[in-house]
Write a structure and sequence with these properties.
- The complex is a heterodimer of chains A (about 475) and B (about 70).
- With about 475 residues, chain A is mostly helical.
- Chain A has helices at about 1-20, 30-35, 40-50, 55-65, 70-75, 75-100, 105-115, 115-150, 155-205, 210-220, 230-235, 250-255, 265-290, 305-310, 315-350, 360-385, 390-400, 405-410, 415-440, 455-470, 475-484.
- Chain B has one domain.
- In chain B, helix 1 (about 5-20) runs antiparallel to helix 2 (about 35-60).
- The chains are: A mainly alpha (about 475), B mainly alpha (about 70).
- The interface between A and B is large, with 46 and 37 residues.
């Protein structure tokens, strides 16, 4: 029954994506940014749905299982302030620049802003390298969910493959419009079903008070932050949400807005959406100790699915599992589409020597890249076994550390391509250094001091762009006139 | 738009960011509304962020972006 419901759900998502194809205008702009026609509700749902991944649903509950309530302070509450603030100061301005200059990708903007092909190429490589672990989160999350719900009847590799095939189909046919529609539907599904899952499981556990009392008796340390999270770690962790300023898929979603005013409602309701999704995930991860004590490391990522399977009967279990799938797919689609957009616009179209790439060819190339990106991601997911949460944090660290570049590009006229190069190279070097130091150590912090690597890399990146810019020749006035 | 309101709201973003680091509740096991106080505080923080966003949108909206939009 559970598997049937999941398949029905996947069928509905496919239909939504395919239906959106009826509005397709056949242009590259329509395929990649829905002709900049998305309204406030769809923008909120697609921005939020894209940003909420298996990281929020599975990773957060797994992390709360190990660290307790502090996970809510660590990530979602900081995000509730920082993410909409970035949308307010950066997203709205990026939308206006994109509209004015017909940008479809981040690289197009940065390349023109600093008048440098080389910088565009460097940024392209760094972005792709950082986005791959993020893509893996979705594919692995889908596989874990299906394997758990069907008690291994559908193995993890088959679940991951199923997610890839469904998203591949509706992204290929529907482009950004299909992605936005499917995102909106899926975001509503995982928000509503997440709430239902929470109340059903809490009821089975004898009510919230009873569940909290049981956790308090067995693991009182999980109801405070205590030793699980250090104050320095929480402070430095607030740098992580800055990653939204540099995510290529969010950049593309900003460009889809109908007008600057379209951002208003999404800005206001984003913090509420975060609380609605993360609170049940964190609490259910905490209560996982009552039913499944002793889960080690990445095993805890499946605690939420295990609880759904134990407490929710047939149909409901299928619906709730569909909710987890919804969260996973609503991110994967935008990420794959944005990478495909980057390959098409920043490589094929930009470096094409002969005639300009036609609208039809842009769409064709976009679809070809969507296919290859899925094939590569799926292959990598079969050989990767890292904790979902850990994978995400390293990816976020890289994007957050590049944040000074977008700030300088938008607000600092004196910033130069030399400064931008210095910043990206600093991030690449330091990110590699810290990654190789810490990727095998759960909860790694710099010198085990409690400080997250992102804080140091971000600071170094900011210094690099300032020093590099001041030591180089000011940008040409003609370039500045285009952007200020 | 009153420049003082803009400055006040920008300062409020910074103040709220500082308030995110609730060191005083680190080891507090008190229950409020049936939940640990450290969790309730951060639920309240999310609601405060929502209120601040509403104020920013209403009082400090970058009107020049709306003007750009209307330009031919």
């Amino acid at each position: 029954m559970t598997t049937t419901i999941i398949f029905i759900y996947l069928g509905i998502v496919l239909c939504i994506g395919l239906l959106s194809n009826r509005l397709f205008r056949g242009t590259g702009e329509d395929y990649f940014v829905a002709s900049r026609s998305i309204g406030p509700f769809l923008l909120l749902m697609s921005l939020f749905g894209t940003n909420m991944t298996a990281f929020a649903i599975l990773g957060a509950s797994g992390e709360a299982y190990h660290r307790g309530i502090g996970v809510f302070a660590l990530m979602p509450s900081a995000s509730a302030l920082i993410i909409p603030t970035v949308f307010f100061f950066i997203g709205t301005r990026v939308w206006a620049l994109g509209k004015k200059h017909d940008f479809l990708t981040q690289v197009q903007y940065f390349r023109q802003r600093w008048d440098s092909d080389g910088f565009g190429l460097l940024l392209f490589v760094v972005m792709i390298a950082l986005l791959i672990p993020y893509l893996l989160i979705g594919v692995m999350g889908g596989g874990i969910t299906l394997a758990e719900i069907t008690k291994g009847q559908i193995p993890q590799w088959a679940g991951g493959l199923l997610v890839c095939l469904v998203v591949l189909t509706y992204v290929s046919f529907g482009g950004m419009r299909g992605t936005a529609w499917a995102n909106a539907f899926q975001t509503m599904v995982f928000m509503i079903l997440g709430g239902v899952a929470f109340f059903v499981i809490i009821d089975k556990l004898g009510g919230l008070d009873n569940a909290i009392a049981q956790v308090s008796a067995k693991h009182p340390d999980l109801l405070i932050r205590g030793e699980h999270i250090s104050p320095l770690k929480m402070l430095s962790y607030t740098c992580i949400p800055l990653s939204v300023g540099m995510f290529p898929h969010l950049f593309t979603h900003w460009l889809t807005a109908k007008s600057a005013r379209t951002f208003r409602w999404p800005l206001i309701f984003y913090p509420l959406c975060i609380a609605i999704v993360w609170l049940p995930s964190v609490l259910l991860g905490l209560f996982g100790h009552l039913d499944f004590p002793g889960l080690k490391g990445p095993m805890a990522n499946s605690v939420l699915v295990k609880m759904i399977d134990m407490h929710a009967p047939g149909v409901l279990a299928g619906l709730l599992a569909a909710g987890v799938f919804a969260a996973i797919m609503s991110s994967l689609d935008s990420q794959v589409l944005s990478i495909s957009n980057m390959f098409t616009q920043d490589i094929v179209r930009h470096y094409r020597k002969d005639s300009p790439l036609s609208e039809k060819s842009q769409v064709l190339w976009g679809r070809i890249f969507v296919f290859f990106i899925f094939a590569i991601t799926y292959g990598l997911s079969l050989i990767s076994a890292r904790s979902i949460f850990t994978l995400a944090v390293w990816s976020f660290t890289g994007f957050a550390s590049l944040f000074p570049i977008i700030v300088a590009a938008i607000f600092w006229r004196r910033s130069t391509k030399t400064g931008a190069f210095a910043s990206v190279i600093t991030v690449a070097v330091l990110w590699c250094y810290f990654f190789f130091q810490g990727w095998k150590i759960p909860g790694y912090t710099v010198g085990m001091s409690g400080a997250m690597p992102v804080a140091l890399i971000l600071a170094a990146s900011a210094v690099a762009i300032v020093v590099g810019s001041l030591l180089s020749k000011p940008p040409q006035e003609s370039t500045l006139e285009k952007f200020f | 738009m009153n420049i003082n309101v803009r400055r006040l709201l920008y300062f409020a973003i910074f103040a709220l960011y500082l308030l995110h680091n609730d060191f005083w509740l680190w080891n507090d096991p008190t229950m409020v509304l049936g939940l640990p106080v450290g969790l309730v505080y951060h639920i309240g923080f999310c609601l405060a962020a929502m209120a601040l966003m509403a104020l920013l949108v209403n009082y400090t909206w970058p009107a020049e972006l709306d003007d750009d939009e209307q330009a031919p």
